[in-house]
Amino acid sequence: MEERIREIILKHSDRDAKLLGILHDIQDEFGYIPREAIDIVAEWLSISPGEVYDTASFYSFFRFKKAKHVIRVCNGIVCNLKGSEEIIRAIKERYGIKEGGVSEDGLFALEIVECIGRCDGPPAMLVDDDSYGNLTPQRALEILRGYEE
User: Fold this and answer.
1) What is the pLDDT of residues 40-94, one digit of tens each?
2) What does the angle CA 141 – CA 76 – CA 25 come to, to the nearest 5 degrees?
3) Beta-strand (E) ranges in the chain?
4) The pTM is what?
5) How far are the Cα atoms of 63, 98, 122, 129 from residue 115, in angstroms, in the given order?
6) Does domain 69-145 have CATH number 3.40.50.300?
7) Domain ranges in the chain with CATH number 3.40.30.10
8) CB burial string 64-79: b at 16+ within 10 A, e below
9) How far apart are CA 116 and CA 118, in angstroms?
10) Given its phi and psi angles, is residue 107 left (phi above 0), alpha (psi -120 to 50 degrees) or beta?
11) Parallel, antiparallel, or unpaired for β 130-132 and 125-127?
């Protein structure tokens, strides 16, 4: 893991605003931001681990716990007008999960996003790379049950 994190950091060595790019790439690689990564990034950028953690924890899309599946619910204006808030509420209640959080069992991470490009069938969500549209709270939960195995 350490070697891969260092490769990611080096990829960003010639860019401004390195920290967010590095954190995004680490999460893309591992599915979350491991504690070890915070220390390595801090050392390489000559900042404190607290600064790295504070930056990552400020943004709801960074996770510190790995999830098997990532749910991204669109809450852009079109999806919102068509009921995305009810879908988000149903998912939070069913899985005991907060926005930007991971369910206790590590099965799902929940992200609320502005657009997933499914304005043809709002409200919409992505589960990993699978896209679903024309959702109701019941249909969204039914879809997610299929990922519980």
Assistant:
1) 999 999 999 999 999 998 887 788 988 999 999 999 999 999 999 999 999 999 9
2) 85
3) 69-74, 108-113, 125-127, 130-132
4) 0.76
5) 20, 19, 10, 14
6) no
7) 69-145
8) beebebbbbbbbbebb
9) 6
10) alpha
11) antiparallel
